[in-house]
UniProtKB/TrEMBL annotation:
Domain HTH araC/xylS-type: 170-267
InterPro entries: ExsA-like_N (IPR054015), Homeodomain-like_sf (IPR009057), HTH_AraC (IPR018060), HTH_AraC-typ_CS (IPR018062)
Gene Ontology molecular functions: DNA-binding transcription factor activity; transcription cis-regulatory region binding
Taxonomy of the source species: Bacteria, Pseudomonadati, Pseudomonadota, Gammaproteobacteria, Enterobacterales
GO CC annotation terms, alphabetical: cytosol
Tagged with keyword Transcription regulation: yes
Key words, A-Z: DNA-binding, Transcription, Transcription regulation
Record protein name field: AraC family transcriptional regulator
Record PROSITE patterns: HTH_ARAC_FAMILY_1 (PS00041), HTH_ARAC_FAMILY_2 (PS01124)
Keyword Nucleotidyltransferase: no
Organism: Gibbsiella quercinecans
Amino acid sequence: MQPLNHTEQVVTLQAIRARCAHELHRVTLFAPALCHVRRGSKVVQFADYHEVARADSLIVFPAGKEISIANRPAQGEYASDIIYIPQRFLSQFRARYPAPFTAEPAVKQASLCVPFDAHTRQMWDSLLNTLNDNAPQQLQEHQLQGVLLALQLAGNAGLLLRERHDPVSAQVQGLIALAPAHDWQVAEMAAHLHMGSSTLRRRLAAEGQHFRHLLENARMANALYEVQSSGRSIGEIAYRNGYACASRFAARFLQHFGLSPRALRGAMRDG
């Protein structure tokens, strides 16, 4: 498993395997991501959109959005690869390859699932090879640039390249993700961001967010990654994400995602 830090400036690969169908609600990714389902299908619900991704499509996950997913095996197996993209890299890509003046079709802007055409597939396979081979970071980013360029040329990169409109929330999420076990308080977070507590609360409210909501989402996002991709015990994952009590953590995980950590691991490992 590659350790995931949502503020790390490196490309990260997560491989998901499951034997049983399962659903997860209120999933938030704090780094933009691309996902390809190699076997089975993934149902994605985002805002008013409900889509099904299979091997002939690529899922574009913008950062900071809350989604619901359902992983459905085919002949007893579900397999997908998720690549997390550093925000820094997207900013550099936008500067190097400005969006064309012609507007992309609205349906492509709104859809999370985009066609996995021949050029995108070729670039994607090359990127996976460099990640699986632990190639130097420069080579990984070179291949990632090819994937993004293929998506942009096909008119399928709109959601991924769109700037976030909640910059303070993004900064708060990033700091929490650095140390999810830390006992974060508003005053300390405000000091990190060089503003007063009341200013932080006011700016988060203007973005439609609350500090405690962001804290729980960041912890749950990291916990979900560890439950899916690590061999750590549930108790250790709880502790690493700010919960001293494993049973309380499991209850919050169930309440948040609609599935307990033990049930999720069972779906991934059992036949």
